[in-house]
Amino acid sequence: MSDIKKFSEFLRETYEKSSINSIRELARRAEMDHSYLSLIIKGEKPKPPSPEIINKLAKALNVDYNKMMLMAGYIKPEIKENFYHEFLSFYSMFNEIDNKLKKLNFDYIKAIDKAIEKNVTPEELINLIEDY
């Protein structure tokens, strides 16, 4: 499915689920021409609208701008997904360190600051804590 088709379908579904009563009303809230918006919703434009238009639509529909950018093809899913997995991995590691240090009743902020000063990796810090 092309980016414009995906975006149009997403926009149409989001609009239909919203409390906005007409395309004219959505266009007014997004500060754009209703006939142009109608062409976007129908998928009759050759490419998705600009990020500026998408931002206006996201605000008018009260939906996540990044999700709309993803649906329009401006953000590639693999980049977003990789970032998400890396964040979860880091967050999980941080929680593991945090839980172990709390069990020790230890000033973990100071310990982490010292580890950073000495270029200790999170994995090395976990190993040191486990050995303790």
Q: Give the CATH level 1 class of the largest domain.
A: Mainly Alpha
Derived from helix and strand composition plus strand pairing, the structural class reads mainly alpha
Shape: elongated
Order of helices and strands: HHHHHHHH
* Overall residue-averaged pLDDT value: 83
Largest sheet properties: none
Number of helices: 8
Number of domains: 2
Integer-rounded radius of gyration: 23 Å
> What name does the CATH topology of the largest domain carry?
434 Repressor (Amino-terminal Domain)
Q: Report low-confidence residues grouped into runs of 5 or more.
A: none
Share of residues in helices: over 70%
**Strand elements, count:** 0
Estimate what percentage of residues fall within beta strands: under 5%
What CATH architecture label of the largest domain applies?
Answer: Orthogonal Bundle
CATH superfamily of the largest domain: lambda repressor-like DNA-binding domains
Distance between the termini: 55 Å
